[in-house]
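User: I've been trying to design a sequence by hand for this structure and keep getting stuck. Would you show me what you'd pick, starting by listing the structure so we're on the same page?

Assistant: Good idea, let's start from the same input. This is the structure you sent:
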């Protein structure tokens, strides 16, 4: 068994007093102090995350768009330069190998970002599915750091640092005009980088792709610029509670090769209109016609105890599903969960029970997301 890999920012995390966890084979900061305080900072001001465990796969060549449209379920060939698209890679049975984001940087150049523990599997699938295409796949994960600023103050923090011309107005425009699910090349602290606006917390925010050699410089500059705005370093524990409140699926919990996009409520991500015949298409066409075997729902409880992944769910005496993620919601003050259940029990307001270690507690199906920012 190999030790988890440190990111280029490991010493910065140690300096800030982080506790660490092995996540996807990487030694990642779990929290720096109070995960509740880190969660609330992202909701109220801003949090700074090291996400360097995520993968970075560059897809380049004349057939890049056609290749991705064959390898993935979405239509990435039609997105504009500077835009991003959430997509999935599935196996021949339609099971989800990973969910990922694809960015188009030029006509024939894309950046695909898979989840940490799935990068090798996605790279291997790309190598297999790339046969016959004039395309090169390059794994830049080991050389790339990914830093995210998330929260209401994230734009104000970047205003102070992002380049985009000599004037203040130009710097502000570059940040303010970057649309949701878009990407641009720019500079911060004299470091050339990629700035994206996607996010995984339910708040506005930005992701910065930087060379490892410059990661500590960028991290320190962001912390310094963000201090007057209430920016704090935040770990994976806060990231998990934030994404759960936002109703966003996590691979390994809500998503797996045993789950199809239609089970997970991700049917709209699948493009049956594109010209290319993508891997898993026939299985997903059959799955769509048959209807989902499971359905992803949100659950909210009135008590204090929160369910955890794997806890069974009952409608009367019938077991109708299992919790995939669950914990107390710091923002809402109630226990919440995501669950895969029988599709007959998905209507908001449906009363269910979750077996919390031998004791059933009442929960109600609610519309997702649990939390939606008002600004």
């Amino acid at each position: 068994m190999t030790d988890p890999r440190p990111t280029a920012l490991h010493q910065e995390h140690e300096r800030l007093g982080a506790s660490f966890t092995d996540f996807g084979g990487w030694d990642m900061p779990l929290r720096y102090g109070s995960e509740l305080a880190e969660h609330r900072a992202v909701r109220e001001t801003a949090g700074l995350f090291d996400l360097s465990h995520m993968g970075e796969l560059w897809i380049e060549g004349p057939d890049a768009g056609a290749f991705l449209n064959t390898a993935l379920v979405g239509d990435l060939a039609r997105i504009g330069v500077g835009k991003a698209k959430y997509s999935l890679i599935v196996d021949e049975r339609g099971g989800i190998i990973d969910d990922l984001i694809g960015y188009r940087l030029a006509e024939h150049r894309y950046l695909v970002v898979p989840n940490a523990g799935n990068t090798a599997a996605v790279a291997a699938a790309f190598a297999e599915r790339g046969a016959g295409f004039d395309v090169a796949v390059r794994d830049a994960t080991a050389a790339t750091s990914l830093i995210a600023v998330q929260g209401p103050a994230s734009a104000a923090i970047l205003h102070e640092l992002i380049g985009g011309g000599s004037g203040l107005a130009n710097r502000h425009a570059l940040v303010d005009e970057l649309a949701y699910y878009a990407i641009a090349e720019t500079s911060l602290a004299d470091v050339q980088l990629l700035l994206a606006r996607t996010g995984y917390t339910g708040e506005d925010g930005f992701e910065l792709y930087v060379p490892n050699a410059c990661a500590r410089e960028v991290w320190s500059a962001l912390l310094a610029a963000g201090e007057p705005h209430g920016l704090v370093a935040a770990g994976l524990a806060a990231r998990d509670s934030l994404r759960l409140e936002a109703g966003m699926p996590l691979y390994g919990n809500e998503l797996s090769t045993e789950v199809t996009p239609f089970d997970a409520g991700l049917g709209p991500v699948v493009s049956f209109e594109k010209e290319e015949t993508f891997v898993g298409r026939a299985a997903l066409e059959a799955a769509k016609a048959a209807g989902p075997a499971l359905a992803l729902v949100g659950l909210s409880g009135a008590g204090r105890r929160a369910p955890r992944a794997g806890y069974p769910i009952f409608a009367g005496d019938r077991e109708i599903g299992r919790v995939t993620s669950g914990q107390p919601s710091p923002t809402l003050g109630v226990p919440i969960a995501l669950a895969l259940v029988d599709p007959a029990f998905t209507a908001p307001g449906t009363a269910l029970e979750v077996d919390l270690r031998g004791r059933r507690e009442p929960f109600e199906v609610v519309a997702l997301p649990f939390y939606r920012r008002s600004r």
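That's my pick for every position. To get oriented when you compare it with your attempt: The mean pLDDT is 95. Residues 294-369 form a domain with the Elongation Factor Tu (Ef-tu); domain 3 fold (CATH 2.40.30.110).
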